[in-house]
Amino acid sequence: MKGKQKIAALYMRLSRDDELLGESNSISNQRALLMKAAASYGFTDIKEYIDDGVSGTTFKRPGFEGMEHDIKRGLVNAVLVKDMSRLGRDYLKVGFYTENFFPEHDVRLIAVNDGVDSNEGDNEFVPFRNIMNEWYARDTSKKVRTSKRLRGMAGVPLGRPPYGYMVDPDTKKWVIDPEAANVVRRIHSMALDGSGIEQIASALMRDMVLTPINYWASKGIVRPSSATNKTLHYWRHSTVHSILRKREYCGDLVNFKSYTKSYKVKKRIDNAPEDRVVFEDAHEAIIPRGDWERVQKLRDNVPKYKAVRSTSHIFSGMLICSDCGSRLHFHFNQGNKSIKYFNCSENNSGRGRCPSTHYVRADFLEQVVLNDLRRIIRYASLHETDFARQLMNESMQNAAKTRERLARELGKLRQRSSELEVLFDALFEEKSLGRITEDVYLRMKGKYDAESDKVQIEIASVELELECSISAAQSIDYFIKLCREHSYIKRLTKSIVNRFIDKIVIHHAVRINGSITQNIEVYYNCVGVLDVPTADDIRDKEISLETRKGVVMTYSFPKVQDEKLCVEA
């Protein structure tokens, strides 16, 4: 670069906080001031570097990084700023540039309003100005955090609305964006039908559906994003997963989902669920709450590893062993591929921790569940008031039992927490009196610390479970609505199974009075196990299925009403 005229860099920065102070810090005001100063210092070859709307606590700014790059290339011999706060509000970083970086590259620094000119020697007040600028940033950060905390606790959305919603210009509340909301409904519907993330993403790409970031861009809405989509319709798995997990789609507002450690650190950290604040029914729901909760259960049951077999069944991931609590796996009979069945994954021919197979034929189970579901829907349609009253009574009883169990569990955990505090005090006293050595003290203290941490986590988990329980009325309304929408079911599909059934507990078949009997418990979403009358006018005919030569399986209701379906062979 020898022999070439170097340039004077005019650096201008404006943050959102500066905008509140009026025109004095505006880019236009800074430009006019710096142009006049450059002329007075005799600089004729100048170049502007601008960062508009960027905080001074970070130095990852496009304009500043561009200026830094040109300085390293030897193109700049002077940097002019309105004042030292425009350069930055981080005392250590600003000190690095003024004390090291600029002198090493022979760059003259001029802060017009602060009277700073590095050619005139060290200015003793510059470090103090830098500290005051950082204090200003720290004070502003505290005020912003306090303001956000107050607004967030009052139920005001702290972030931008997710894909599917938009801000009403009059009320400033979230309202449904019809076009995007239809895509959200489609994604959740496909998940309920049993489709995986890959299948959903592929279907959206095949139908040329715009991704959220490109959809907003098509509407003239600017949203920050680190995603670099290959095409306008390239749906990432993470995008589909995020849409399926957002609680906002069932009408809830979730504030304080993330935080930063300090005003200097911009990386956001996810808040623990118990530290978030949830406002239920804060806006209109796109997805019914029951459907959204069912999707969450389905996603929770997705294996964290890649499945060896791609073949699945409508009951896959839904059957539970009554003895060990493991899931039943889907299989084909090697000798006859038409025979499909489930058995306990932990049995594994006696090598697992479950002593029994809990074998059940898939086709027979389908007929049993279909028959029971038809029976319940028929009873609900004929006797809806009695059905709702029965569900309410059972739900209240189950909720009371759950609360009682959690209260007992919470009491034991809090008692143990108190005991650990006493043990800590006694341990410290023993050490102070010299009755135990330092090594013994540290070993015992580490043991108590670990148990105390575990107890506190369990306490928070139980308290959260108590707070997040759904009201019985909401659950019943959802289930009765499902019964109305499916007045007659011709055959079971993955969608119907996911919407109605939470899990199916399979007991091992036992011989009773010469017959092999197998109990099957069907737990329905939101209402649990249902025990409705089995009068002739609301029950289907018996199911009979030949399994192998000489053995016929039949399905019938228990003679004694007991909450279980009875399968006899």
Give the helices and strands, then pairings.
Layout: E1 7-14, H1 16-19, H2 27-41, E2 46-52, H3 62-72, E3 76-81, H4 84-87, H5 91-104, E4 108-111, E5 116-117, H6 126-153, E6 165-167, E7 174-176, H7 178-192, H8 197-206, H9 212-218, H10 237-245, E8 253-255, E9 258-259, E10 269-270, E11 277-279, H11 289-300, E12 319-321, E13 328-332, E14 340-344, E15 360-361, H12 362-382, H13 384-432, H14 438-467, H15 472-485, H16 494-500, E16 501-506, E17 510-512, E18 515-524, E19 528-529, E20 543-548, E21 551-556, E22 565-568
Parallel strand pairs: 1-2, 1-3, 3-4, 12-16
Antiparallel strand pairs: 4-5, 6-7, 8-11, 9-10, 13-14, 14-15, 16-18, 17-18, 18-19, 18-22, 20-21, 21-22
Helix pairs in contact: 7-16, 12-13, 13-14, 13-15
Molecular structure report:
There is one protein chain. The chain has 569 residues and is an alpha+beta fold. Among the domains are: 7-148, Resolvase, N-terminal catalytic domain (Rossmann fold, 3-Layer(aba) Sandwich), CATH 3.40.50; 165-300, Hect, E3 ligase catalytic domain fold; 387-474. Helix content is 44%, strand content 17%. It contains 16 helices and 22 strands. It has helices spanning 16-19, 27-41, 62-72, 84-87, 91-104, 126-153, 178-192, 197-206, 212-218, 237-245, 289-300, 362-382, 384-432, 438-467, 472-485, 494-500, and strands at residues 7-14, 46-52, 76-81, 108-111, 116-117, 165-167, 174-176, 253-255, 258-259, 269-270, 277-279, 319-321, 328-332, 340-344, 360-361, 501-506, 510-512, 515-524, 528-529, 543-548, 551-556, 565-568. Strands 12, 16, 17, 18, 19, 20, 21 and 22 form an eight-stranded mixed β-sheet that branches. A hairpin with a 4-residue loop joins β4 (108-111) and β5. α12 crosses α13 (384-432) and α13 (384-432) packs across α15. It starts with 6 loop residues before the first strand and ends with a strand.
